[in-house]
Design a protein that fits this description.
This is Beta-amylase. The chain is α/β, with parallel strands linked by helices and about 600 residues long. The chain has 17 helices and 14 strands. An 8-stranded parallel beta barrel has the order 3-4-5-8-9-10-11-14, surrounded by 5 helices. A two-stranded antiparallel sheet has the order 1-2. A hairpin with a 5-residue loop joins strand 6 and strand 7. Helix 5 packs antiparallel against helix 17, helix 9 packs parallel to helix 11 and helix 11 packs parallel to helix 13. The chain starts with 5 loop residues before the first helix and ends with a helix.
Length: about 600
C-alpha cells in the first residue's frame, strides 16, 4: 500500500512519477506502483515559464501550476508546489534524499490543518488514546508484527489521536526469575511511539491475560509466581465451592512474604521501580500516564465474574471471592473485633451461584435479603474495605515511585451495570463495590484516589440504558453519572473507556455526551480528562469504521463548546480520510497478516 502514498502525488506534480520510498519504519517490500494524482490535486495549467539559477547554471522550464486555493503572496508557497520547484534545481540523488523528509512534512502539515482547523479552544476537548493489541509484545520479548505496528501508529497519529495505551505485562518482563527484568520489546515499542509523536499510557499489568472479555491471547503470571501458587493454592482467589482463580494473586496475602521472600506489594513496587529506571528518559514527555493494575483485567475488583470455561455468563450475579485461607483469616479477625466471632468462619452461604439473578437468592433478594441485614452490612463492609486497602497500598507505592517524574497515576474501575436497577446491586457487591440502593460504593473509591492525586478511570462509557437487556435492569448511563458525581465531589479527574469494541456513530455520540456531562442544573458540564478507545485492530481500519473514528476523534478534541457545526467537522473528516486512505489501508492489511 505504500505505493499509493503521498510521494506519488508529489511526483505527479513535479512532472514525472516518483517511486515510493519506504516510510519511516515501514517495510520497503510493499508495492512501488506509480499513481497519477491529478484526481487529488486539480489546478489550472499556466503558460508562465520560470528561470532558476543554482549551482552556477540556469534552468528554464514551465512553472508548476498556481494553486487556486492559496496565494503565495498571502500565505507562502504551498508545500506541494515547493516540492515541484525544488525538483528543477536538485539532482536525482538530492531529491531521493529529500523525499522522505518532504513527505513527512506534507503529512504533518495536513494533520495540523485537520486537527487545528476551526477549533476555537484547543484545550476545550478531550484527548483520545487508543488501546494497543494485548499481544503487542510477544513471549520472546519482541514487538509483534512490526510493519503493522508502524503503519498503524502512523495512521493513528494522522487521525489526531493523542496517544496509545499499552499493557506492560508482569508475566513477560519478569518471567525468568524474581527481580530479573527483560524490557526488550517495550523499549522498542516505546521508541516507536516516540518516533510517531504519540504519548503513552502504560498499564502495569500484574494480572494474567486470558479468560476475560476480549482477551485474544494468553499471558500467564511469571513462571516463578505460578510455581509458588502450585505449592500454596490459597495464593489464588477462591470461591465457596473451592474453585481457584489464577488471574491475580489474592489480596489476602498482600503483605505476606509469599513470593520467594517478597510480598506481592513489594513485587509490584519493584516492577514499577525497574520500569521507572528503564524509561526515565521518556517519562513525563512520551510516557505521560501510569495506570496501575489492581486485579483481573487490570481493574480494582475481585474476579467475581470469570468467563473462562463458561463459569459465568452475562448477566449473572457472580460470586464472592473470599474463601482462601488468607481472606478467611482476615474475616475472622474482623468478626472477632466486632464481637461476632461466629461471622468469621465463612462468607455468605446463601448468595446463590455465578449465573443466578438476585431474586433467585436469599442473600440478594429485594425483600428481607441478607445484604440488608446486620450481618450483611458487616460482611460487605469488610469485603469492600479489603479491596480499598489493596488499592491504597498499590497506588501509594506507585505515587512514591513516580511522583517526581511528571506522570499521572490512574486506577481502572469496572463498569458493572447489570442488575443496577435492583435494590441489592448484586454483581457490584460480589466484585467488591459496596453499592446498593442505600449505600454509595463509589464515593469511598473516589475518596481514596483523591488522597493520592490519582485519576478515576471508568468503563462502559459507550453504553446506553435502552440498548441493554431491560429484564436484567441494566443501567450503564445511570452508573456512569453516579461515578461522575463521586469523582466531582472529591475533585478526582475522571477518564473513560469503552467496555466493548464499538465502531458505530451511536456509540461515538454516547461517548461524546458522557465525556462532557452536565451532572445537575447548577453546575457547568464536567469534562473527562481523557478517553481511551478499545482497541487497535483490523476492524478499526476498515474504510467505513475509520471514517467514523476520524470524525469522532476530531469532535472529542474540539469539545462541545467549539463554535463549529458538526456537518463541517464531518466534511473535514471525509477529506482527511481520503488523503490518508493509502496509509490506513496498509495498516489494515498488515494487521491481518
Amino acid at each position: 500500500m505504500a505505493g499509493l502514498s503521498i510521494t506519488h502525488q508529489l511526483g505527479s506534480l513535479a512532472g514525472s512519477p516518483i517511486q515510493s520510498s519506504s516510510d519511516s519504519g515501514l517495510d520497503s517490500s510493499t508495492s512501488s506502483a506509480v499513481v497519477n494524482a491529478a484526481a487529488v490535486w486539480k489546478s489550472p495549467q499556466t503558460n508562465l515559464r520560470c528561470r532558476i539559477r543554482g549551482g552556477g547554471t540556469e534552468v528554464e522550464a514551465l512553472s508548476p501550476p498556481v494553486s487556486p486555493c492559496r496565494s503565495p503572496v498571502l500565505n507562502g508557497i504551498r508545500a506541494d508546489l515547493t516540492v515541484a520547484c525544488q525538483a528543477f534545481t536538485t539532482t536525482d540523488r538530492e531529491m531521493e534524499m529529500m523525499m522522505p523528509r518532504l513527505e513527512e512534512e506534507m503529512m504533518m502539515k495536513q494533520m495540523r490543518k485537520f486537527k487545528e482547523g476551526g477549533a476555537q479552544d484547543k484545550d476545550n476537548g478531550v484527548p483520545v488514546y487508543v488501546m494497543m493489541p494485548l499481544d503487542s509484545v510477544n513471549m520472546n520479548n519482541g514487538v509483534n508484527r512490526k510493519k503493522a505496528m508502524n503503519a498503524s501508529l502512523s495512521a493513528l497519529k494522522s487521525a489526531g489521536v493523542e496517544g496509545i495505551m499499552m499493557d506492560v505485562w508482569w508475566g513477560l518482563v519478569e518471567r525468568d526469575g524474581p527481580g530479573v527484568y527483560n524490557w526488550g520489546g517495550y523499549i522498542e515499542l516505546m521508541e516507536m511511539a516516540k518516533k510517531h509523536g504519540l504519548k503513552v499510557q502504560a498499564v502495569m499489568s500484574f494480572h494474567q491475560c486470558g479468560g476475560n472479555v476480549g482477551d485474544s491471547c494468553t499471558i500467564p503470571l511469571p513462571r516463578w509466581v505460578t510455581e509458588e501458587v502450585d505449592q500454596d493454592p490459597d495464593l489464588a482467589y477462591t470461591d465457596q465451592w473451592g474453585r481457584r482463580n489464577y488471574e491475580y494473586i489474592s489480596l489476602g496475602c498482600d503483605t505476606l512474604p509469599v513470593l520467594k521472600g517478597r510480598t506481592p506489594i513489594q513485587c509490584y513496587g519493584d516492577f514499577m521501580r525497574s520500569f521507572r529506571d528503564q524509561f526515565k528518559h521518556l517519562l513525563g514527555n512520551t510516557i505521560v500516564e501510569i495506570q496501575v493494575g489492581m486485579g483481573p483485567a487490570g481493574e480494582l475488583r475481585y474476579p467475581s465474574y470469570p468467563e473462562q470455561d463458561g463459569t459465568w455468563r452475562f448477566p449473572g450475579i457472580g460470586a464472592f471471592q473470599c474463601y482462601d485461607k488468607y481472606m478467611i483469616s482476615s474475616l475472622q479477625a474482623a468478626a472477632n473485633a466486632a464481637g461476632k466471632s461466629e461471622w468469621g468462619s465463612t462468607g455468605p452461604r446463601d448468595a446463590g451461584e455465578y449465573n443466578n439473578w438476585p431474586e433467585d437468592t436469599p442473600f440478594f433478594r429485594r425483600e428481607g435479603g441478607g445484604w440488608d441485614s446486620q450481618y450483611g452490612e458487616f460482611f460487605l463492609t469488610w469485603y469492600s474495605q479489603m479491596l480499598l486497602d489493596h488499592g491504597e497500598r498499590i497506588v501509594s507505592s506507585a505515587k512514591s515511585i513516580f511522583e517526581t517524574i511528571g506522570v499521572t497515576i490512574s486506577v481502572k474501575v469496572a463498569g458493572i451495570h447489570w442488575h443496577y436497577g435492583t435494590r441489592s446491586h448484586a454483581p457490584e457487591l460480589t466484585a467488591g463495590y459496596y453499592n446498593t440502593r442505600f449505600h454509595d460504593g463509589y464515593r469511598p473509591i473516589a475518596q481514596m484516589l483523591a488522597r493520592h492525586g490519582a485519576v478515576f478511570n471508568f468503563t462502559c462509557i459507550e453504553m446506553r440504558d435502552h440498548e441493554q437487556p431491560q429484564d436484567a435492569q441494566c443501567a450503564p448511563e445511570k452508573l456512569v453519572k453516579q461515578v461522575a458525581l463521586a469523582a466531582r465531589e472529591f475533585g478526582v479527574p475522571l477518564a473513560g473507556e469503552n467496555a466493548l469494541p464499538r465502531y458505530d456513530e451511536t456509540a461515538h455520540d454516547q461517548i461524546l455526551n458522557a465525556a462532557s456531562m452536565k451532572l445537575d442544573d447548577l453546575e457547568d458540564e464536567n469534562e473527562m480528562c481523557a478517553f481511551t478507545y478499545l482497541r487497535m485492530n483490523p476492524d478499526l481500519f476498515q474504510p467505513d469504521n475509520w471514517r467514523k473514528f476520524v470524525s469522532f476523534v476530531k469532535k472529542m478534541k474540539e469539545g462541545k463548546d467549539a463554535n463549529r457545526c458538526l456537518e463541517q467537522v464531518e466534511r473535514e473528516a471525509e477529506h482527511f480520510v481520503h488523503v490518508t486512505q493509502p496509509l490506513v489501508q496498509e495498516a489494515a492489511v498488515a494487521l491481518m497478516q
